[in-house]
Amino acid sequence: MRFTDSPVVELPVGGAVLTFQQDNGSMHVGTSVWPCSLVLVKFVDRWLPRPSAAPDPNPYADLLRFPGKRAVELGAGCGPAGLGLFLLGLDVVLTDIAPVMPALRRNLKRNRSALPRAPKHAQLYWNNSEQIRALRPPFDLVIAADVVYMEDSAAQLVSAMEALVADDGAILLGYQLRSPEAHQVFWELCHRTFPVIEKVPHEDLHPDYAYEETDVYIFRKRK
Asked: Interhelix angle for 35-47 vs 80-87, to 10°?
């Protein structure tokens, strides 16, 4: 992979700065850093419950209270969402398909000094039930960002989300329309599968990462 030909992306989070090398010339979209992962991390960074925070109402406090929670990220790519959330205290396993794993491992190594320990990572194809079982679901949180871009994989993605998330868990999704066909399939299946779909108001996103075309959603299996 030709990482040196593409710009390095910086992500300030939790008092540190993570950096990600990417290969924008690759045929695999997972070797590029897409904006939804950055938006998702900065949303969490803004609302993460902190002992020193002012006692103002935090509508996301229960969702983002990470101690004791297990999480898995689907389509981790170069790793910005998973590593950013790991740095903020979430015990998350980063997953992606085999051709993208070299990019993920490269950035895990690149950012190792900024992390409290090395996060877990695993190969996962969304339609591979054995790989899903090997992750030992259910998880309290399923993380995904910029993963809806192919019509053929949209159903597999929703099925994997359903299989991995606990009945009382939640899915955090960073979303931007990439393909009208994939968009239609994905959202039709999501509305059938998840009774609760909440779109985070744009004013709740981090002000420096509130891109007009990018949204954060919270899915739940239970009302």
From this structure: 10
Residues 6+ apart with CB under 8 A from 57: none
pLDDT for 169-205, tens place per residue?
A: 999 999 999 999 999 999 999 999 999 999 999 999 9
Structure tokens at 201: 């108001």
Q: What are phi and psi of 96, to 5 degrees?
A: -165, 180
Question: Helix/strand/coil (H, E, C) string of 115-148?
Answer: CCCCCCEEECCCCCHHHHHHCCCCEEEEEEECCC
Proportion of the chain in helix, strand, coil states, percent, rounded to 5: 35, 25, 40
pTM > 0.90: yes or no? yes
List the one residue out of 155, 139, 136 whose CA is nearest residue 147.
155
What is the reported pLDDT for 54? 57
Q: Which helix (H) or strand (E) segment is 35 a member of?
A: helix 35-47
How many CB atoms within 10 Å of residue 188? 13
